[in-house]
TrEMBL record:
<dbReference type="InterPro" id="IPR001789">
    <property type="entry name" value="Sig_transdc_resp-reg_receiver"/>
</dbReference>
<dbReference type="GO" id="GO:0000160">
    <property type="term" value="P:phosphorelay signal transduction system"/>
</dbReference>
<protein>
    <submittedName>
        <fullName>Two-component system chemotaxis response regulator CheY</fullName>
    </submittedName>
</protein>
<feature type="domain" description="Response regulatory">
    <location>
        <begin position="143"/>
        <end position="260"/>
    </location>
</feature>
<feature type="modified residue" description="4-aspartylphosphate">
    <location>
        <position position="193"/>
    </location>
</feature>
<dbReference type="Pfam" id="PF00072">
    <property type="entry name" value="Response_reg"/>
</dbReference>
<dbReference type="InterPro" id="IPR050595">
    <property type="entry name" value="Bact_response_regulator"/>
</dbReference>
<dbReference type="InterPro" id="IPR011006">
    <property type="entry name" value="CheY-like_superfamily"/>
</dbReference>
<feature type="domain" description="Response regulatory">
    <location>
        <begin position="7"/>
        <end position="124"/>
    </location>
</feature>
<keyword id="KW-0597">Phosphoprotein</keyword>
Length: 261
């Protein structure tokens, strides 16, 4: 798939901003662009249509961007559109719900043409990550455990892994449930969040490294945590790699290929 193949829904209440963003998308060769001014209008457009990407402002007349992102990521269809936030919002507490809602990217307004192109290139990687290239096994043989208390994030990761050819995917909504699964089954890879109730990602990793029968099990942490000390604690616990939410699909795929060799 190329940029020109993308079918995009732009959700923006400002007519001026809508014209500017549509023009920038068209300058990149993207001509299949529909527009909506509210979350409810956007969901009506998505009903019955298969689009590749939803790009939305943060503050809409009837809901915030995180609510729309959650609605998009719970659509009952095999492949859900990627969600990208376009906003001048920079406050971490306001953006955190977007990260937990499964946003593929957050782009700050005003943005340069190069930044928009790079974001859309990453969206293409989310939509078509390509088959995993592993030396001694097929992607279909890889057993992955996804651990995140956000159902939209698990859906996003599951769709991405399926696009890589991974079919054996188990899910846990928290560290406690994941610990039980690790004790009951063998996995090739764990992808976990950091912040979860009960048992967080650091605690789960420590259990895997010290108390489980799978102490060499690779663990990738996908988190919105930005505190260096907290991330260092995760690495000290035995986390193999860390991806920041929203994460680059190509980076996550590269980590998986390196860790599973």
């Amino acid at each position: 798939m190329k940029l020109a193949d993308l079918a995009v829904l732009l959700v923006e209440p400002s007519p001026i901003q809508t014209r500017i963003i549509v023009a920038r998308l068209q300058a990149l060769g993207i001509v299949r662009v529909q527009t909506a001014r509210s979350g409810s209008e956007a969901l009506a457009v998505l009903d019955g249509q298969d689009l590749h990407l939803v790009m939305s402002a943060m503050y809409l007349p009837d809901m915030n961007g995180d609510a729309l992102a959650r609605a998009v990521n719970t659509l009952e269809r095999r492949f859900r559109p990627a969600f990208v936030l376009l906003s001048s919002e920079t406050r971490a507490p306001q953006l955190e719900p977007l990260r937990q809602a499964g946003a593929a990217a957050i782009v700050r307004k005003p943005f340069a043409a190069g930044e928009l192109r790079a974001t859309l290139a990453d969206v293409l990687d989310h939509l078509e990550p390509g088959q995993l290239h592993l030396a001694d096994r097929e992607a279909e043989e890889v057993r992955v455990l996804l651990v995140d208390d956000s159902a939209p994030v698990r859906r996003l990761l599951r769709q991405l892994l399926a696009g890589m050819g991974i079919e054996q995917i188990s899910e846990a909504p928290g560290g406690i449930e994941a610990r039980a699964l690790v004790e009951a089954q063998f996995f090739d890879l764990v992808i976990t969040d950091l912040h979860m109730p009960g048992l967080d990602g650091v605690g789960l990793t420590r259990h895997i490294r010290t108390d489980s029968a799978q102490r060499s099990l690779p663990v990738i942490m996908v988190t919105s945590e930005a505190d260096a000390a907290r991330l260092a604690e995760a690495r000290a616990a035995g986390v193999s790699e860390i991806c920041c939410k929203p994460f680059e699909a190509r980076r996550l795929k590269g980590y998986i290929e390196r860790l599973l060799g």
